[in-house]
Design goal:
The protein has eight helices and 20 strands. By secondary structure, the protein is an alpha+beta fold. A five-stranded antiparallel sheet has the order 6-7-12-10-11. The chain has a four-stranded mixed sheet with strand order 1-2-5-3. Strands 13-19-18-17 form a four-stranded antiparallel sheet, with helices on one face.
Length: about 350
């Protein structure tokens, strides 16, 4: 059961927010679990490499993809069950994440508002446990349905099965490239639980003239902050935060703070401290600096941008240089949040 014909030599330019030109040898969009199973088990394509594509917002192409790109187009938002205070909602992997957040707020379903204006699709969200402003996907996650790439079998993954960590899950480690996430079930609340403790949400709400915020107001504040800090991919190619915020030992942090008293940090467990990668990169002189057709953004050094004609290889090489300079100056290894293909 195919939902669209398999195409050959397809440009991926419009399928990645970096705006990188790359070609897929084969390309197909699937809009149902049945269609996904069919293409995974198709003997003509079973042996070739496959790339599952969501919104392309966390992806950097450094070369053409000599295999089959499967664009996830499984849609749908369905109420599974509810009680007086809670609701469980099943969402297709191909749904736009921010559109889903907006829909939840319109329905009076809460818990997702701090995750507003994150680019990408619902299916990609559990893979890296997306997070922003004090909330992570794991906080609202209940269950997901995934398809085994080799057998086509359907499998449920519980919260524990996913092994969520900071921008991590089992799907980025031991089960990498083993499953395709098809649907995700979220556990949301009917009662607002306002979380304004992280970043500048509280300050932004004050600037907006709001003293008793609703979840919708929190969402609007987050959108305002993100728009002020992060470039719109429709205007300048980027994939948001290129690197994860590193977690370092407290002893390492204390040594660094003697040299850099203003170094910001957040607690990350008993023996570790999280340091903003953007601050580290900025201290190394990268903020606003252009290298050829790419560079670190002028407002947020954590974002590497494509100024129009950059290749994926150029962007990858700049990322490597940034990593080397941070390692040399601070003894901290930055790890990429973006998937490099």
């Amino acid at each position: 059961m195919m939902t669209s014909p398999i195409k050959q030599e397809v440009s991926l330019l419009s399928f990645n927010t970096f705006g990188i030109e790359a070609k897929a040898r084969y390309f197909v969009e699937v809009t149902s679990i049945e269609a996904l199973k069919a293409i995974l088990l198709d003997p003509d394509y079973q042996a070739i490499p496959k790339l599952i594509l969501g919104g392309g917002s966390n992806l950097l192409f450094t070369q053409d993809f000599d295999g089959l790109v499967i664009k996830m187009g499984i849609k749908g938002i369905e109420k599974m069950r509810e009680d007086n205070e809670n609701i469980w909602v099943k969402v297709g992997a191909g749904e736009n994440w921010h559109d889903f957040v907006v829909y939840c707020l319109e329905q009076g379903w809460y818990g997702v508002e701090n995750l507003s204006l994150i680019y990408g699709t619902v299916g990609a969200a559990p893979m890296q446990n997306i997070g922003a402003y004090g909330v992570e996907l794991k906080d609202i996650f209940d269950l997901l349905i995934a398809i085994d790439r080799e057998t086509g079998n359907q499998q449920f993954f519980t919260h524990a099965d996913c092994k969520f960590g900071y921008r991590e899950s089992v799907f980025k480690s031991e089960l990498k490239d083993k499953y395709v996430i098809a649907e995700v079930i979220f556990h949301l609340s009917k009662k607002p639980q306002i979380n304004t403790s992280y970043g500048t949400i509280q300050q932004t709400l004050v600037e907006m003239g709001i003293s008793q915020p609703t979840p919708k107001a929190v969402s609007e504040a987050v959108i305002r902050i993100r728009k002020s800090k992060l470039p719109n991919p429709e205007q300048v190619g980027n994939a948001g935060s290129f690197f994860k915020n590193p977690e370092i030992l407290k002893s390492h942090f204390e040594n660094l703070r003697e040299q850099y008293p203003n170094m910001p940090s957040y607690p990350a467990g008993e023996q570790k401290v999280k340091v903003p990668a953007g601050w580290l990169i900025e201290q190394c002189g990268w903020k606003g600096r252009k290298v050829g057709n790419t560079g670190a953004h002028k407002d947020q050094a954590l974002v590497i941008v494509n100024y129009g004609m950059a290749t994926g290889l150029e962007i990858s090489e700049l990322a490597t240089k940034i990593q080397a300079s941070v390692l040399e100056k601070f003894g901290i290894q930055l790890h990429t949040e973006v998937n490099i293909v």
